[in-house]
Amino acid sequence: MDTTEQDRLQALRDLNVLDTERLPELDRITGLASRIFGASIALVSLVDENRQWFKSRCGLDATETPREWAFCDYAIRSTDVMEVLDAREDSRFRDNPLVTGPPHIRYYCGAPLVTRSGYRVGTLCIIDGAPRAESMSQGKRLLLAELAGQSIREIERMSPAASQ
Question: Model's pTM, two decimal places?
Fold first, then answer.
């Protein structure tokens, strides 16, 4: 594990948010994202060393998945919104258990959650069981990124580290 990844994981741990109760403020954001973007699932996903853990979820019962299955692990590697129109056609994901089995992901779009210190600790993502024929408009990509920004601000605001 490189220094940058160690620093990113430390920034995530410093938030003291993993394995904590859901936040109504985040549940409102994931609910809005699901409705705005017409997706059956919306998540605030935090990418830890070995898993992705869902701080908020709409349309999915699971609370975490292994990191090696996480689309969000790819999304945090960039500052841009990551979009996959049909996961069955993407070499990174076609054999992924989340594509070949429940929840049968076809469409994924995730915007990184970037801390004040600049670390990408997770995503706000939308997921659907149906592929999409065309990419999301630039305006909608910006809206998803803005909702991701609001999500990380809520997490940082509620973090015990914020009061220090």
Answer: 0.94
